[in-house]
Amino acid sequence: MIDLNTENWRHLSGLIKYWSNHNDWSNHDELHAGQKVWDILSALRGPDNDKMDVKLATTSVIRYQLLKLSGALPEKGILSLPGGPICNEDTPAFVSLRIALSKEYMNDADKHPAFYHFISHAKRAFHSLGLKWDEVNDS
Predict the structure, then answer these.
(1) Residue 36 resides in a domain
(2) Is residue 46 part of a domain?
(3) Which residue has the higher pLDDT, 103 or 12?
């Protein structure tokens, strides 16, 4: 059970309130602040399958960039905390996989609705963080 009196919970509940108060779901052409936060949170979790290569090319790159932005990144390269998140610098191989994912899943959403849903969040999270989906993001 989550201890609702902890500082971490207060930060998370503040983020949830921000997300719920900063959405305009009627305008699908423009992402609002709350929608960007939701896309980033959704992408941070990763896909709901065992496709570790997809998680590495999307989620781990986003985690790495967020750690970098927060000043919490200790060294370049791979960061894996025991029992914790995997974070990686972007690579040409990750870019190739993301491009292939766009072609395979974004064009065939009806066949893979859950995976399409994740890729949609991941692509928007990249955009919201100023990352490029189809180029290597400098570290």
Answers:
(1) yes
(2) yes
(3) 103
Q: What's the whole-number mean pLDDT along residues 12-27?
A: 57
| Dihedral (Cα; 133, 69, 55, 22), 10-degree rounding | -80
By the 8 A CB rule, do 123 and 133 touch?
A: yes
Q: What is the pLDDT of residue 24?
A: 54
- Containing 54, the helix (H) or strand (E) segment is helix 52-57
In a domain, 7, yes or no: no
**Maximum CA extent, the chain:** 45
Domain presence at residue 79: yes
Distance CA 92, CA 95 (A): 5
Residue 4 has pLDDT above 80, yes or no: no
Counting the structural domains of the chain, the total is 1
Three-state SS at 128: helix
